[in-house]
Amino acid sequence: MGADPEDETRITACPHTLFIAHDTAFEYRSVCLDENLNLTGLSDKEVEERWLGEKGGVDGLTNQVTLADAIKVAAYAPYPSAYGSYYGFAPTE
Asked: Which of 4, 46, 47, 61 could form an S-S bond across to 10 if both were Cys, CB 3.0 to 4.6 Å?
């Protein structure tokens, strides 16, 4: 993981990374994730509207990944917060 050398605000990730997200936004979405969840061609605003309408928000939307051997790591801040961060990975072949 790191910053793109041409745009330090853009996150780069290894080829196995499907997504990096938290409860308020996606920080990184791979082409593979977009294809798997039918997000290809949607603007960031349209993607946000999709997960806002999903039961469970980003967590619920990323639970719908159907790639073989994909894994998701969900980390939640302790009570009283319900804040979560989500990381998805899948084999490249």
From this structure: 4
